[in-house]
Write a structure and sequence with these properties.
By secondary structure, this protein is of the alpha+beta class. It has one domain. Helix content is 12%, strand content 28%. The protein has a five-stranded antiparallel β-sheet. The longest helix has 7 residues, at 8-14.
């Protein structure tokens, strides 16, 4: 489970949901995550962060920088920095959101109105 939080730069674009098309440079999404075990206990998961960088940052990720920080504070990876290979799965998944600048959105029935 993740919660999607977006900064002021990207807020207006993000609220368009399926009509985003593109978000402004500097848009940052933070996604704290957690899991719930079979015993019903919630456990903190990684903090995922996406930031739309300037054109030319990284064509392989459509200029998105991905980062993941583990619950204990260790960096899992950052695009073009610490263990960049450790976060390549982020963009591989986000490719399915290409029509919305690579953002994956909650299904309509789960969105806050």
């Amino acid at each position: 489970m993740v919660q999607n939080l977006v900064n002021k730069i990207g807020r207006d674009a993000y609220k368009k949901f399926d009509d985003i098309k593109t978000v402004p440079i500097g848009s940052t999404m933070a996604k704290p995550s957690f899991t719930v075990g079979k015993d019903g206990e919630a456990k903190l998961g990684p903090l995922f962060i996406m930031e739309k960088m300037t054109n030319g940052f990284n064509a392989d990720t459509a200029n998105w920088r991905y980062a993941a920080i583990l619950p204990g504070g260790n960096t899992m990876g950052v695009t073009k920095a610490t263990n960049s290979a450790g976060v390549t799965f982020c963009h591989e998944c986000h490719v399915s959101g290409e029509d919305n600048d690579y953002l994956l959105l909650a299904p309509e029935e789960y969105r806050v109105k």
